[in-house]
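User: Could you check the structure of this?
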Amino acid sequence: MKAIFSVATAVIVLGTGGVALAGSATQEAMDEDVATNRALSKVPQGKKVTGTSCTSIEIGMGGETSYRCTATWE
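Assistant: Sure, the predicted structure tokens are below.
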């Protein structure tokens, strides 16, 4: 039983050791630049930004536009 536990523990430790954890943050604002900057401000220190993307969203009957922007990192 101890041998199985030791092997399982080794597989978990070695299996996750070389994996880079990627992440993303999404923010919304009425201005695309503001939404992008808010998302970028959520990137953890020391992480490399791999991209940004934005989607425009029409809200209300007045045709106002909101922006939802996502910053991704690794």
